[in-house]
Amino acid sequence: MPAVPKPPVESAGSLSGAYLAAKTAQAAGDLDTATDYYTQALAIDPTSAMLQQDAMFAYLADGRFKEGVDLAAKLHDDETVAKVARITLGVDALTKGDYEAAIAEFAIPNPSDLDALLLAQMTAWAKAGAGHVDEALSQIDQTKGAPWYGVFNGYQKGLVASLAGRPQVARAAFGDVVKDQTLARTSPDAYLGAADALARLEAREGDKDAALKAVDAGLAVAPNYTPLSFLRERIERGETIEPAVARVQEGAAETLYVLGQAINRGDGRDVALLYFQLARALHPRSPALLTALAGIAEQADQLDLAISYYKAVPENSAFRHTADLQIGLDLWYADKKDEAKRHLERAVRDYPDDVRAHTALADVLSADKDYARAADALNKAIELAKADKTDNWNLYYQRGIAYERQKMWDKAEPDFKKALELSPDQPQVLNYLGYSWVDMDRHLDEGLDMIKRAVDLRPNDGYIIDSLGWAYYRLGRYEDAVDQLERAVLITPMDPTINDHLGDAYWKVDRKREAKFQWQRALVGKPEPDADQRKEIEAKLKNGLSAGADTEKAETKSSETAPRAEAEAKGAASDLTVAPAAGSTGSTAAPGGGEAPKSAD
């Protein structure tokens, strides 16, 4: 699902060349290119089982479902990949309404715990589609296994019963999930889905109070979950509410989506992607699926692909708003900065009362060093937000940074203090305020203690440790500075500023050869130092530290000596994740000084 049509890849010229190119692209997360090369390789040798296996996985992960199904049919009895092939063929049968064929394909022997749950629920949906509702419900009830099965089974049983016109059974199943908030720890998606589905059921049955109660149960677990807030507004307005699922295919897609979200992290992300793409074959316009796929694309740095998924989110969906904001952030990451700013400025006009729109705009403005406009956007966000809510510490923190960068310390300091009042143990804020005090020769003991607390809270953060080392340097405690800066370099070895700082500290303790080595490393660091920093480092390599270097830095605090927690601070104010799902994903801050916005996970 690429954002724009792209020309076909170059011909690999040979089977080995095409296969190698496909594997290389696949390892890099570029599935679009990988599948093109697999197609070339299969054209040269359509009989290789290994090639068919690898290509099937790539086609399915890339959303090329038809090509994946064609290969799955050939690999139906292949011991290596039969499970995935049969699940794929079962999903294909469901898309065609061939429910008996789906039931047969899902009868896979000796499944793992996760597979057993998936296959049982997919079989239940196929039985419901075939008109065997009692068998479908019994299938779910009889699926026993790991302790974590309960929340998934309760949610799916409710969906099956609701679609089959059995509201009492559905109400009981959803209610068993919703009344136990601890189940949200196993699967936030299943828990919130059950609250949403129960609310829809009650609204359709004419019980508005019960519907709102179900919504509130979900919001008690996830106060910022947009779909439930959106549903609450619609119920209160008396609108006609659609059922949670309208077709068997949508229900089966929800099974794949919810289980995929439960494993959508670390090594499980590849399997989650496969689940999501199979689900999309069943429910192509599912906004939750499209959002999840966009998140995985972002993790793979496939930003155009992510944007295309967000753009496909239906306009009338509760997810549309978040998709619009995330598009703006992804445009920034894709180095389309002017377009990103225009997009988010339009979002602020479209959603003038939404805190997230203003914070997303503030993120990109801060990243673009337009701190005055960023502060204005954050002023509006703070005005709209519940100012004393704990979660809003980051709004004050971000605005404090914007003021500090404009040298408006009289406004910045109260914001940092307010952030700590709301959330006292935020290492970024402790570091930023503590370092700023030390750098300005104010509240030295308290400032140093704050930085030490930040290090204690985040002992493996090279940037915060760098702040502690540089604070010691500014205080003339050069041996202590060396100890901390050496730690910081071990944790973050390629950062140019940390290496530059260590070089300065080495020079002060008369380790001048090592100082020059660190400065040389700083010049080839990642990200590359900017022009001013490069010029300064080159001067030190030539002449060493001049006698006035410390005085000059004390008089004008540059971005080089700014608190290094800012790498994480950028975008902390944005809460663009649609749901606090177990596998929710989002962009992460760019390395090197935080010159990029991000969405919060």
UniProtKB/TrEMBL annotation:
Biased composition (Basic and acidic residues): 527-541, 550-569
Compositionally biased region (Low complexity): 579-590
SMART domains: TPR (SM00028)
Keyword Nuclease: no
Keyword list, A-Z: TPR repeat
A Pfam family per the record: TPR_16
Annotated segments matching region Disordered: 524-601
InterPro entries per the UniProt record, alphabetical: TPR-like_helical_dom_sf, TPR_rpt
Repeat region (TPR), residues: 393-426, 462-495
PANTHER family: CELL DIVISION CYCLE 16,23,27, CELL DIVISION CYCLE PROTEIN 27 HOMOLOG
Name under which the protein is recorded: Tetratricopeptide repeat protein
Organism: Jiella sonneratiae
